[in-house]
Amino acid sequence: MGKQLMERRDFLKRMGSLFLGIMCLPFARLFGGKEKGPARPAPMKEAMHYTSGDNLAG
Amino acid sequence: MPKTIECQLCPRACRLTDGQRGDCRVRIHLDGKLQTLVYVNPCSVHVDPIEKKPLFHVLPQTGTFSIATAGCNLHCKFCQNWQISQRAPEETHNYDLPPEKVVSEAIRSGSKSISYTYSDPIVFYEYTYDTARLAHEKKLLNIWVTAGYINEKPLLEIAPYIDAANVDLKGITEDYYRRMSSATLAPVLKALKIMQREGIWIELTNLVVPTWNDSKKDISDLCQWIADNLGPDVPLHFSRFWPQHQLKNLPPTPPKTLSMAWEIAKNKGLNYVYVGNVPGHRGNSTFCPNDNKLLIQRIGYQILANNIVDGKCKFCQTKIPGIWKI
To answer: Regarding beta strands B113-116 and B302-306, do their DSSP bridges make them parallel or antiparallel, or are they unpaired?
Structure first.
């Protein structure tokens, strides 16, 4: 009987830990690293040293 | 609107139709104009010891405010900065740092120079150009760390604002540049001569890669070219390769190979030859070419002793080339 109780208690502990972990997942995003993703596009600046094109040879 | 644009910044001479980017990933043809995608947006910002560039003959033991953007016009198989150099700017995390802010932050950090580095400043040319001009107004030096793969006209235009450069001389054959870096050698050799002629202090770095460019002939020919074309006072840094990027199958360069390279360079008459990434090697330090006295003793980036006074050997008064003060 005591052994059954202990096994049941261990099972409930494991299930409880699993449930707690799932519940905490949304909060992990709040404290996690900065999301990577496309950087804000840089402001455009005209480049130096180029030539345009319809007269390009070859 | 022109159908094609040719970028004339580097020898690749990318021809771009509307919407197309150059090989470097950071210049794009939009509506008839070539635009840079990385102006004021570096992805790397650090304060480094100047010795890390490596520059051993410029303002020893000072900090240099170092910036880089994404992109590069070479594709070296051994690149240790490939996470930014072989990336487009939308793939990196970037900062907003206009030229005036680069300068003010450099001053605030106590740096004596700004280094345009990590990837290759040639591809963020406009950002470098505008920042470098402001830096000079504030008495900061400008340092390029570059592969030197640039056309003559843009090099001549920016040269007045660049005080010192560490330039990779990766090998001495066209075949090596093609296979290792998807580039060509001749423009780099030309750029080196122009830089020296325009008064830019240059130090060279050769990364010695096992089985690729580590033969006695390769090293000998490289040193001979330097001696014949740039002179014996241009410092040469032999750097140790570590497995990276597309060459993880190779071992690190054995220290004895670097020692061999150092000997060859000294026998070719080069006065200032250094060995990087091998702590304790004689090539970490600077010696007077006249009386062989220890001038600057280094361990890693730390200087333990400095016997250069007013740009001369303290012992025999031989002038030691470099930029020793602003």
So the answer is: unpaired
Task: With CA atoms as reference, report the closest residue to B252 among B264, B265, B236, B239.
Answer: B239
Question: How many domains in chain B?
Answer: 1
Which tens digit of pLDDT belongs to each residue from A23-54? 777 665 555 444 444 444 556 899 999 998 66
Domain annotation covers residue B82: yes
| pTM, entire model | 0.88
Q: Which residue of A34, A40, A45 is in closest CB contact with B39? A: A45
Residue B285 lies in a domain: yes
CATH number of the domain residue B105 falls in: 3.20.20.70
Q: Which domain holds residue B269?
A: 39-290
Please give the residue of chain A at the shortest CA–CA distance from B152.
A49
pLDDT digits (tens, 9 = 90+) for B243-255: 999 999 999 999 9
**Residue B79 identity:** C
Nearest-CA distance B84 → chain A (Å):
13
**Rounded Cα gap, residues B135 and B91, in angstroms:** 29
Domain membership of residue B83 (yes or no) is yes
Question: Within a domain: residue B144?
Answer: yes
d(CA B126, CA B25): 15
Tokens of B242: 């570590």
Nearest-CB residue to A36 (from B4, B93, B151): B93
Please tell me the distance from the alpha carbon of residue B147 to that of residue B201, in angstroms, as a whole number.
Answer: 15
Long-range CB pairs of B159-162 (<8 Å, 24+ gap) are B159/B194, B159/B195, B159/B198, B159/B199, B159/B200, B160/B198, B161/B129, B161/B132, B161/B133, B161/B135, B161/B136, B162/B132, B162/B195, B162/B200
Rounded distance, CA B296 to CA B304, Å? 8
Q: What share of chain A is helix, strand, coil (3-state, %, to 5)?
A: 50, 10, 40
CB contact under 8 A, A47 and B9: yes
Give the chain B residue whose CA is nearest to the CA of A50.
B7
Q: Do A47 and B7 touch (CB under 8 A)?
A: yes
ipTM over 0.85: yes
Cβ count within 10 A of residue B213 = 20
- Per the DSSP assignment, residues forming a β-bridge with B238 are B206, B275
